[in-house]
Amino acid sequence: MAAHTSQSVAKAAGDGVGDDTAARGRSRWTDSDSRNTGGLRRALATHWYAWTMIAPVVLVLGVIIGWPLVRGIYLSLTDANERNVSRTIGARHIEATYEFVGLDNYADVLSDPVFLQRLVWTVMWTVACVSITFTLGLVLANMLNRDFKGRAAYRMALILPWAVPGFVSVFAWRFLFNRDNGILNKILDGGGIAAVPWLDDPTWAKFSVVAVNVWLGVPFMMVALLGGLQSIPGELYEAAEMDGASAWQRFRHITLPGLRAVSMTVILLSTIWTFNMFPVIFLLTRGGPGDSTEILVTQAFREAFVSSPRDFAGSATWGVLILLLLMIFALVYRRSLRKQGEVW
User: Fold this and answer.
1) Using 50, 70 and 90 to split pLDDT, how confident is the model at 36?
2) What is the pTM of this model?
3) DSSP character for 88?
4) Between the CA of residue 173 and those of 117, 133, 168, 238, 291, what are the distances in Å?
5) Do residues 157 and 164 touch, judged by C-beta distance below 8 A?
6) Which tens digit of pLDDT belongs to each residue from 259-270?
7) Minimal CA–CA distance to 281: which of 267, 261, 301?
8) How far is CA 212 from CA 84, 198, 226, 267, in A?
9) DSSP assignment letter at 232
10) Which of 55, 86, 90, 287 could disulfide-link 294, Cβ–Cβ 3.0 to 4.6 Å?
11) Who's near 249: CB < 8 A, 6+ residues apart?
12) φ, ψ (nearest 5 deg) of residue 196
């Protein structure tokens, strides 16, 4: 009887402990939740002006970027083309008849040899443009970071290609590359060299589009790196020179580490821009000769506006794949920077 009573007392005590523990857990959860809610309210109350200022921007970005992105992802999961989308012909309105097909479009694109061809050339084009642009921008930035007569005029002249609208520069280069009347071939002809088929030969066409994109990209790279150079304390160079460091040693151990943060940022931006550089390819070669200079973006454009029937689902699929590739690159790039100790 005593044992039974003691067990009952112990059980009751245990239940009380359990109830008390559960109550404390609920109390902690409630306190934490209230603190989070209170912190959000305080942030909104303190920074209401900032939230008010960015709200229109967020709304506009949601309409301009968010809705087309969602719509594109949805279309990539259908069989939409110009024959089955909703359209109005005169007074007659035809309802959409396209259907949901899931991931079939992605399977078709990824299994198509054309995708691999476009991807390989797009990566080659991006690597070539970014590496050459960065190298030339770094060289020019180092030259313009020194004191010499007429430095301001040289800076303005080198920034000029960036100030001219891109399509104007591309059309100017198209005239320069003209096989029969182009200035470049006229100069070569004056030196007894046969005309070069700049835009008519696949190899020369690839060289031409890379050259034009480098021409357009160098000013941005130069300005960004020049700003990074001017942020490096001059005392470091003076101390290194007093210690007997050569120009190459100063460049390697002071300039390059000092430009690391700026370089990582401009390389990322330049890579994304070049990967999606539609105007240069389309306006200069239209993807030709044949399809030798087609990149992923121009292929997506061709699917939506050139092919017959226009394949809106296929174009959306190409667009989503381009976005995924760039997101993967950005994540890998960010991870590599964090391993090197860079915060990004």
Assistant:
1) low
2) 0.79
3) E
4) 26, 17, 9, 43, 20
5) no
6) 988 998 899 999
7) 301
8) 40, 12, 22, 18
9) S
10) 287
11) 240
12) -95, 130
